[in-house]
Amino acid sequence: MPHHEHRFGEAASGDVVQRHRGRQVEVIAMRLNGDPVQIGVPGHWTLLEVLRYQLGLTGTKQGCDKGDCGACTVTIDGRSALACITLAINADGRDVRTVEGLGVGKAHPLQDAFDDCGAAQCGFCTPGMLMSAAVFLERATTDTEVVVDRPAIAAALGGNLCRCTGYTKILDAVAAAWTTMSDRDAGAAGEDV
Amino acid sequence: MSARDPADTGQTPDASFAVIGGHHRKIDAMDRMTGLTQYTDDITLPRMLHAKILRSPHAHANIVDIDLSEALAMDGVAAVITGKDLPISYGIIPWTPDEHALCLDKVRYVGDGVAAVAAVDEETANAAIKRIKVTYEPLRALTDPHESLATTDVLIHERRRKDGSIKRSNATKRVTLEFGDLEGCFADAAVVIEADYHFHGSTHTPIEPHCAIGYLDPKGILTVWSATQVPHYLHRELAKVLELPRNRIRVIQPALGGAFGGKSEPFDLEFCTALLSMRTGRPVKCLYTREEVFLAHRGRHPFHMRYRTAVSADGKILGVDAKTVLDGGAYSSFGLITTYYSGQLLCSPYRFGSYKFDSTRAYTNKPACGPKRGHGSVQPRFAIEVQLDKAAEKLGIDPIELRRRNALSVGDRTVNEFAINSYGFLDCMEKVATASRWSDRRAKLPRGRGLGVAGSTYISGTNYCIYPTDLPQSGVQICLDRSGRVRIFAGTSDIGQGSSTMLAVVAAEELGVHLDDVRVLAADTDLTPVDLGAYSSRITLMAGHSCQRAARDLAGKVRTAVAEEWGCSRKVVLLAEGRAQRIDDPAISMPIDEAFVLAEVQFGTMGSVGSYQTPRANVHGEYRGATIGASPAYSFTAHVAEVSVDEQTGEVTVHSIWAAHDCGRALSPTLVEAQIEGSVYMGAAEAVMEHHHVMDSGLKDDGAKRDPGPGKHGLLANASLLDYRIPTALDTPDIHAMIVEHPDPNGPYGAKEAGEGPLHPAIPAIANAIYDAVGVRIDDLPITPQKILAALRAQREKEAAVQAPGAATPC
After folding, report:
1. Taking CB atoms and an 8 Å cutoff, what residues of chain B touch A56?
2. Predicted TM-score of the model (pTM)
């Protein structure tokens, strides 16, 4: 996935547009799944609340609301972040990606592999799991030092709790997705030559 | 019937299925992975209010007064309710309705609901519940079950006998059953193993917190969307408590983010959102915080178990004598059933000469316990499997061999008279022994590393509904579409286990369509036939049967219509792989949608229903309680666990668990494996990590009895996902799931359960492996480093005493 260097919306950031029930509301501007978004958010609201309850992107889940479970994992500027303990105002000017932006038009290799391996049971942890896995595999594609084996995948997903699967099929799926992504990259490289 | 009847269906014979047994993608997984699926909290309705529930800070107290005036005066608060607004009691078991949506006159645990607020947003609701002033009169909190059972002057519930007198007891249920000549067996025994076991409490922790939305629409229909795994029972209890006819209530279970038994009864938020909506005319949502999920609990009961097991010199189990105290928490929940299960589900997979169990469930001032995956039988399974390991050692018999010598067989009845109609247990044992290289490695690994084994059994649904009825346990409706698609309507609750996919697999098999062409609409009491819900591992067997019946009815009509078109017998028409095919002439076939059209022309719009009722004859005994724990079919499991023990730190690492499970027939093997893996993980975690730790006056992790101090009785010590340690990917052992198929005549295609049974052996297998590794027994769960270190210290002292008998240490 290409990393968005593009910054925008600086003019609006930090503007206090109104006070809502005694709370400060600020306008933030972010790139969300590739689209520019400007929105007024209560200053104390988390990114998770804004995504779910203001923007209607309910793919990102709330499991604990205190940074313990990883169900709310999104990426901010390409790094994984827990949306439930990130203030929305801290996403101002950033590039945010949620599970809704993972596979566009067709399934991301991770989604396809999770589906094929049976890695999603109830599916509630899955969006966060997918985002953590995506960050890890994207890092692995750019950094040849990163080894993608079972222990490394388990470590990369160590912040995401799953209660259904025992992780077995999740680790299978990430490994399978990595094979697909590696083959695809190798294929693309071959075509270039 | 165990297999398809070719004479009836004309389809391929048993075991050569087109869809069943293949690799399937779940029909609903991709939507869950793209953010499209709506779980309850993902639903927002116009003008929706948000509710919060005020919870008791006391473990046991009378409510003297509740002052709502400040909360009601707040801007943004729409309504406030208390227990007096919902005075009718309920309970998942009709004989023990001891709960109220909000407490009436006293609170019974820290976290009991006292009042509920609906406000414009969650923040306002939270602020408002803080403004409610409750005056409490604290009472003595009973937090230890033994103390509770011994107390008659403090009663957690005031219950009256038929003559009006007060029952001066805190026992919620006692069950005593005896089979065979127990004392005679003990007199004949070569060895008697006697020990006390303690199973700590644990909880489900689905990643999705409980959530409900209530909405009374202007036409007077109350809709409740809830993260429940039992929409049907919720429907009934809502009608009872809210005094509404059932046809004015609709319960919808949206996609569910895990349950494991933790969402299998009504909770306060469902009643409160419903009533708050009735008061305000607006939709009302309530989402539990994670702390509330821990407090709602209904998890695994702590059990205190004293077991005596008599074994003959050749390793046969002669008798088992089990005495159990169950720590039930503040309410009955499923406790009546749990108390029976604590004894009734122990009698398989082994042949017992005789058996007695005496189980008493106590009320305590703690979050109520209920059914967690492997309801009521995981705890006794721990005790018996460790007992057998101890017996095997005493007799010098390999633990797997000892279990083989006690095997049941098909056609047997267990000592408590449950009928065994399939039995893959020995194959399960064989598989785990081979895969773990048991005979080469057990008792032969270097000190610090060990292998342990355990076996188990579980039910595939209970033979009887929770309330007395002759109605079917499960109904499925199927319609065929002219485009070649199949629609299934079922009351089943897919809680992640894949029950909707299971139904689609069955329909695709019978109707010859591709899995992608089946749509399942489930768990909506207005739109789907009744199914009792996702509990007791019943859906595959029961709804599987219903679906098979409905689908076969339709397939018969389709084949009849096609046969007429082709001028052949319907016996040579096969529906498979998206086509109607002629068996005797492979050149003749048509797409399935054309076949459906032919059928619709001949028979009209194509729809059918199937229902399932459990077999009633010859499946259990006639004694009082014989029906509880009786199932149409029993599954079997064996585990071998490999552990290492760090003798410096006491830390146990579970490296691998080999788990073989007899599910009768794997309708969808990937889903069955997933259930085995999830079960093994959850069981392993209960052995060495998890503890729903309510501070009480009972046994602590280190074995010492200790008072937690004033004001701490009944406080939950670890109500977060950081402190209640569920395993991460790094903590989970390598799980090797193996499927064993011994089809059961009572299962659809022979299928039995796979969702709960595979959990049971993990805990005793780990305990037994620890003994193999370092020679210490930890009979008190969870197995913590402190307990390991204390046991190793005791072991060293004992060895030193043996080596220097002259210098005997006083003990």
Report:
1. 44
2. 0.95
